[in-house]
Amino acid sequence: TDITELPTFSGVTDVDVCIIGGGYTGLSAAISAASAGFSVYVLEAHRIGWGASGRNGGQLGSGFNRHEQLIEQLGLEASQTYWALAERAKEHVLDLCKTHNIDVQYVPGIVNTLHKKTSIAKLEREANAFNDQHPGAQLCVLDREALQAHVRSDGYVAGIYESNSGHLHPLKLAVGLADVAQQCGASLFETSAVTRVEKILTSGHRYRLHTRHGQVIAKTVVCAMNGYLDALVPKAASDSIPINNFIVATETLGERIHSLLPSNAAIADSRYVVNYFRRSVDNRLLFGGGENYGYRFPKHFSNRVRRAMTTVFPSLQDVRFDFAWGGTLAITRSRWPSVREIEPGLYSSSGYSGHGVALANFCGHAVGKAIAGDRDDFHKLAQLPTGPIPSNRRIRPILAATAMGGAALLDRVAKF
């Protein structure tokens, strides 16, 4: 993907809205706020889409992570409201791409596969009930034989097909959103890390954001760093924990890829530490798997992904990896996003917990609309319970590692 370099911010300026982070959340917020007539600056520490927005698995999925728990915790009516909102989130992404001719190589179809023994009858009852309760869900249960039309692996016993979800090229989406944001009047800056955010106490809710080469004074600030919140705004960082995930792109497999993924649907499995994979347009297998916590990547993380990949496809043991990369996302305690106004004029949105292609874009859009006075979607998102996470920077990665390490152990001992 060709990416035009954007300038580094320098000097001192005064704007209506300053957004920290040039990923899906920040760019979508910029589009909405700039379209409403506000002056908007976006400050990105690295390059546009450098974080999870440019490095994710590209799955535009349905609902929220752990959506079924919304019924248990908030009731059926609330679950239906949030399902409809998540459906709008997918539509929002695809509508943006269609309206602005962003070629993200979208392919419909996601299969959520089960790797443990399960009752097909029970699975069908649950899926049918969910479809009845959530109009438009269109979940279709696949037994082992039907699953072979999408993924050929002895490791999976059943699946659920989502025809109204799909997969896309994540970096092309981020770059396209950046172009749209600039067309709407937003000013975007790269290599412009914000080092400090301070409230200007003498002038109502105004903020001064410091970078290496200048300062931005803004009436409204949006923290859109997701997994990279770190200690810049502690009140925002306390909502989520950063997790690193890893992806490889194999050598071009040619016709062999069709024997693995016949339908070109994207796959996400039922392991606690999820494996997710899909075909690329040039017939590579893009496979994501393995995690660690904090901000350091393990030295040979591609070995982790190979172990996960060959559990699913043993025949790929000797396949070459042409590319391997990692990225940092964020999860919340509930696995539902944290979207809130921390104090007047200071917004934060993070913790998409694996559903960021749809939700990061929509949450950023909702924040941008809230700044312009339309707070309906923002209010709904802000009501999602996320639960506090200890703010100590040393303790947080340990908590994540402990929780996810136990989950990984469950994966290893589970019987197919």
Keywords summarizing the entry:
416 residues
Shape: globular
Number of strands: 17
Oligomeric status: single chain
Q: What percent of the residues sit in helical stretches (DSSP H or I)?
A: 25-40%
pLDDT averaged residue by residue: 91
How far from one another are the termini?
A: 39 Å
Radius of gyration: 21 Å
Strand content: 25-35%
Major sheet description? 9 strands, mixed
* Category from helices, strands and their pairing: alpha/beta
* Unreliably modeled segments: 406-416
Quickly count the helices.
13
Order of helices and strands: EHEHEHHEHEHEHEEEEHEHEEEHEEEHHH
How does this structure look, described?
By secondary structure, the protein is α/β, with parallel strands linked by helices. It contains 13 helices and 17 strands. The protein has helices at residues 24-35, 52-55, 68-74, 76-99, 120-133, 144-147, 170-183, 234-237, 256-260, 301-312, 356-371, 376-382, 395-413; strands spanning 11-20, 40-43, 59-60, 107-114, 139-142, 158-167, 187-189, 194-200, 206-211, 214-223, 241-250, 266-269, 276-279, 285-293, 321-331, 338-343, 346-350. Mean pLDDT is 91; it is low at 406-416.
